[in-house]
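Hi V.,

You were right to ask for the full record rather than a summary. Here it is.
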Amino acid sequence: MQDNDNLKAKRNLTALVEFSRVINSSLDLNFILNNVLLTCLGKFLATRGIIALNINGKLQIKSYKGISEDKILLFPDIDANEDCTENDDFTKFFTENNLLASEKISSSNECVGIVCLGEKLNKQDYLKDDLDFLKTILNIAASAIQNSLIVEELKLVNRELDSRIQRLSSLFELSKEFGLFSESTKVTRLLIFALIGQFLVQKYALFRFEGNDIEVIEPKLPVEELLKNLRKIDYHRIDTSLNKEQVALLFPSLYGMGIEVIVPMQIQGKTKGLIILGRRINNFDYTDADIEFIFSVGSLAIISMENRRLFREALEKQKMEEELDLAREIQRNLLPQKIPVYKNFDIAAVNVSSKQVGGDYYDIIELDKDDCVVAIADVSGKGVPASLLMANMQAFLQVICRQNVPLDEATGLINDLISKNTADGKFITFFWGILNNIDMTFEYVNAGHNPPLLIRDGKIIKLEIGGMILGVMKTILPYRSEKIQLMKDDVLVMFTDGISEAMNKKSEEFSDEALEKLSLRNGRRFSRNYFKGNTK
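Predicted structure:
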């Protein structure tokens, strides 16, 4: 299943990379929209779909498949920033055309448009994974669609806006350049060089935020003074670009250092860094178009850096999961692979970890043809540390139980070994015993574990004799053992607190009382079938 998931993830990633390459290879709006719609229809095997774009504040259908033109003409007049799900006319159009899923196309917190998809060929519903993948497709497509819309608009304006076209081209090229670098330092250097070359500035600084930490990147301003002034203000809350007048009014100390423009670098509306620029060499003021360009370049850069960070984290997580899967397989192999069969007893056991690896453990070790050791343990904590301690426990038990040492003395010896190999705060609850198939006896020691339940004649006898939990300190008081004579139809239930402390959807614990009632209720049915060792 893990391999299938990995293969599916790789295929999805490959498809997304190819999709990004195709739609970013052209600025033709029809080409991009057709590719976006066909990709969505092909991915989800949908029979129909539409793409409506934000044109002057209104949604207009610009691409459609599987819906007749006369129905398209009935698309209602809807504000682009309106929540379509609350618009009755849109809901009617959505329902009448058998559309089942819709998602906004957004870029820089702006609604670019909306995509609606119809029913699937296999008649299945759109799952959360489908909608998440659709969002990913549209996030990739958003910048391409928005760039195309801007280019379409620029073709209609006069020659005074030629500089905007050049800057959009620069943004497009920068976005590709940002994508080529694998290190954040190279991305920031390219960003700085682009701004210096475009605006001819000598005083500048680039800041990147990571939680409460602030990273200063290649500043050309007095760093200590700049940081001192920045710490006086809540710089994380600068969420809009500030021109010279605004900087002078809001942050006079920064303006006094020669700073004229502050532009936030944002991801999904959250400020992740700042671009601070001083006066230009040619003494020109920064226009609104200049500041918009700086914001766009900064956003591309910070998104590129954030994507690299997330990608590295994803790779590390994937590697960790692969290692945990391997550890889980190794841990599973430490548990008994075969349960011995005896004439007078039936033994059954199961272990289900709440994570890939855990600290719950059981073992069934044949000593000879008539005797076997039955053990159960629960290591404090969860995850890898618990699983490592569990592996130590298994190794100690495998060796010691074959040394013909009395059970109580052997328990003390195990405790001493565990204490030497356990960090502070870690411990193990442990129960074990020797089952004799001839004499029908069971000699046990309980080292602080949940007392197993011996069900006999409709009543429960708890096996509690023993001593302290393992790993807390070296054995001072000797452990005690008890030998009990087993009788026909006895049922012994051994378990960890993973059973009694398991919670339902209401966060209510199953409890020891419920387990005891369940064991009594099923005791008669289990008798003659199982001598049961049950773990979490």
